[in-house]
Write a structure and sequence with these properties.
This protein starts with a helix and ends with a helix. The protein is built from 24 helices and 17 strands. The strands form four sheets. A seven-stranded parallel beta sheet has the order 11-12-13-14-15-16-17. Strand 9 and strand 10 form a beta hairpin. The chain is globular. 44% of the residues lie in helices and 13% in strands. The chain has 576 residues and is an alpha/beta fold.
């Protein structure tokens, strides 16, 4: 679908109109159109072709004309005209967390600050804090956020890297079904961000594969090509995103597993493997494991490690040599697996800001063969997320209880993602909370407070006997928003003392708790929950990302509450 690019165009039109201080009603109208398109599960290109756009609530004649123009030309003339008046460097300033269009417009139009590097220089010199609407605290936050995003650079989120791999795999398999495509490198290790999307192609016919690979949609540039490797740039068709660099290595089926062992790990882990191979009079490289000139065929990656005299460790544990050494010393736990997950305890419906109905979420959960799920729409203070009033929440609880009586094989917990307010209190009174089966509490606002205040809010929330978990505890958005300043050891201890679980969010932009925090938490005895925070039915299939973060933090099955069978999980709920 073209919806993503179309929605982004309308959002950018609104941004540029606001930067140019044009009519506020037009700005609001374009933002509304962008939101309608982004949240729709219908293909607007098909709707335009079938002349059915007029049936979409909120889409008027002006929007229809521009959508039709986009479907015909690939762009919108209004967008192209606005670009002539707004420098790209000014638009880049909107990517800085804490700066909205009004602030950027003021900086650009009244103070000639028209790019991020100049803004950073002005902040460092102490001049930004003297400008209207800033002050010392906001200026320091802007400077910190600029540095944070500069450090993140052009790396992409793990979720996007996986999407690219799947798009490439799908297209290659349509042309050459005998070829096996694997992600390798940081994508296969499930790193939070990925620089290059590296792949391994396993084929008996490398020439045929190369022809097939170079013919697929998305390959925008080939920078080098040999019989064993192609370096390329990838850009999703009909997307406004920047191209992503990548390499695809080509090996024979007999070399498949050795190549995976060579191409997946970090440089440090790869060096360890290669030195171990040398000690056994062998050579490990991208083209396979060799004894002299003879390729040694191995049926699996564990078999390669066995040849090297090492215990096998999962790809997610190959970021450095720490896990390998622990495995050698027999101190590495058996980490949790995706197959261990029995339920998902954080998801949203159309009642709040979700895009799927309760029935759609239930169907997805049954496809995943879950034993239980918790429906956790937002609470009333989350206005931007269409949080539920007390009346609406209790009506949802009643409906979920009715569904539980009708549906066999899946238990539906009536829950809520309850906002933790500025003083640490919860968004509903106890007489409402006690009617719910599962409550996860979260901070969604006021994240720039002091360490003491931020921490005290979470500590107080965990004191409630009704709160079973804290969702996305640090509030970070990878590449965009830094985590809150928190005293994590105190939070971990409070979680233990109150038997409150902490969440590992599977959302690609969150992955919160981080692997580092997971390791610290389980060392202190904290129970964790791996959830998707799904906002549509497809979101339930992101669980593997959260599991990968749990693995990186050495979390075992016993550390995760939603690996428990239903009866044991309910007993844990009663105790917590």
């Amino acid at each position: 679908m073209l919806n993503q690019k179309l929605s982004l165009l309308f959002a950018k039109i609104a941004d540029m109109q606001e930067l140019l201080r044009q009519n506020s009603f037009k700005v609001a109208a374009n933002r509304k159109i962008a939101r309608i398109i982004a949240e729709s599960d219908r293909d607007f290109a098909e709707l335009a072709a079938d002349d059915k756009l007029s049936g979409i609530e909120g889409i008027g004649e002006s929007a229809i004309a521009r959508i039709n123009e986009f479907c015909t030309t690939g762009t919108i003339s209004e967008y192209e005209e606005l670009l002539e008046f707004v420098p790209a460097s000014v638009l880049d300033m909107l990517k800085i967390n804490g700066l909205g269009p009004k602030s950027v417009s003021m900086l650009w139009r009244e103070y000639d600050i028209d790019n991020i590097r100049l803004l950073l220089a002005v902040a460092r010199e102490g001049r930004l804090e003297k400008l209207p609407g800033f002050g010392k605290k906001k200026a320091e936050a802007v400077m910190s956020n600029i540095m944070f995003q500069m450090e993140a650079g052009d790396r992409i989120l793990l979720g996007r890297a996986i999407e690219i791999v799947e798009l490439i795999r799908f297209q290659v398999n349509n042309i050459a079904p005998s070829v096996t495509i694997h992600p390798v490198g940081s994508t296969r290790r499930c790193c939070e961000t990925v620089g290059d999307v590296d792949l391994l192609a396993v084929t008996d016919n490398p020439d045929e594969f190369a022809i097939a690979f170079l013919s697929i949609e998305g390959i925008t540039e080939v920078t080098s090509q040999t019989d064993t490797k192609i370096s390329f740039s990838w850009k999703e068709p009909d997307s406004m995103r920047q191209p992503v660099p990548g390499e695809i290595f080509i090996v024979s089926p007999d070399a498949e597993h050795a190549a995976l062992c060579f191409l997946t790990p970090s440089a440090a882990q790869r060096d360890l493997l290669c030195k171990q191979a040398e000690s056994k009079k062998m050579t490990l490289k991208a083209s396979g494991l060799f004894k002299g000139d003879k390729l040694i065929k191995c049926p699996s990656e564990p078999a390669v490690y066995k040849k090297l005299g090492l215990p096998y460790i999962a790809p997610t544990l190959q970021d450095d040599t720490t896990a390998q050494q622990a495995a050698i010393d027999k101190k590495l736990p058996e980490v949790v697996r995706l197959a261990d997950i029995r339920g998902d305890l954080h998801m949203h419906t159309t009642a709040s800001d979700g895009r799927s109905s309760i029935d759609d979420l239930i169907n997805a959960a049954m496809m995943l063969k879950y034993e239980y799920i918790a429906i956790t729409d937002h609470s009333k203070s989350s206005v931007i997320a269409n949080g539920l009033s007390t009346r609406d929440l209790l009506a949802e609880v009643e409906r979920l209880q009715e569904l539980n009586e009708q549906i066999k094989g899946l238990t539906i917990l009536a829950g809520c993602e309850v906002d933790i307010l500025s003083d640490g209190s919860l968004d509903y009174d106890d007489d409402v909370l006690k009617q719910l089966d599962y409550i996860t509490a979260s901070i969604h606002s006021g994240m720039t407070g002091t360490r003491k205040k931020n921490t005290s809010r979470i500590l107080k929330a965990m004191e409630s006997p009704y709160v079973k978990s804290i969702s996305h505890p640090t509030g970070r958005y990878i590449k965009y928003r830094q985590p809150m300043d928190l005293d994590m050891p105190r939070i971990f201890q409070q979680a233990v003392d109150t038997n409150t679980a902490l969440e590992i969010s599977s959302q690609p932009a969150r992955l919160d708790l981080s692997a580092e925090h997971v390791r610290q938490a389980i060392d202190m005895g904290v129970k964790l929950a791996i959830n998707t925070d799904a906002h549509d039915a497809s979101g339930l299939f992101l669980m593997s990302l959260g599991v990968s973060i749990a693995q990186k933090g050495w979390a075992a099955k016993a550390d995760i509450i939603n690996t428990m069978p239903l009866k044991k999980f309910k007993a844990w709920l009663d105790k917590s």
